[in-house]
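Narrative of activities, Objective 1.

The group set out to show that a structural description can be obtained from nothing but a protein's sequence at a throughput compatible with the screening campaign. Below is one input-output pair from the validation batch, recorded exactly as produced.
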Amino acid sequence: MQIPMILTAVIGLLMIIEFFFPMPASVTSLNVTLRSFVTIISATALILGTIVLTIFHTKKVGTRGSEWYYSIVYVVAFVVTAGLGVLNVRDTTFLWIYNNMTSPIGAALYSLTAFYITSAAYRVLRARNWNAAVLLVCALVVLLMLIPIGAILFPPVVPLGEWIRSFPSGAGFRGMIIGTSLGIMGLGVRVFMGRQKEHLGIREERRDSE
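Output recorded for this entry:
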């Protein structure tokens, strides 16, 4: 199990060092080849995931499992769409399925996200204390700035909302990005040192010390 961890550390270091220091042409060519392998492996994983998902739903239809009728919808949609795509991806029927079924479903999922965000904002934006009151006022100012009627009814919200987005909100967002980057760096160090093995399919059981 040490060989995969050593390979992960070496490949990761090669990828990182290339962005900070000039490397020989051979190393740069090796990195390009490794990135090509990443693309190939990702495509293979997508195909494998599709096959496994199709087998799961097919078995579910055969055994009449729970809510098996949804599996029928998946199997029929997969067979029709995949068949038309393999025959001719530019076929009008295939494009009709994408434009009139896939795109509206994606738009519906995104619209549902707006309702979840509104519900979460309703629960969060309550003036229970002065901190929550400041958050509520800033949120209202930014919302009024973004909607057209808000700028018409309350013109001062436009420069005030831009200031909030540019300075307090921008500073907080940068702090969040910095914190996330540090966390990713820490995770990368753990992977290089062999302390993080889950990506290799290795899970160590932790035993509480008596």
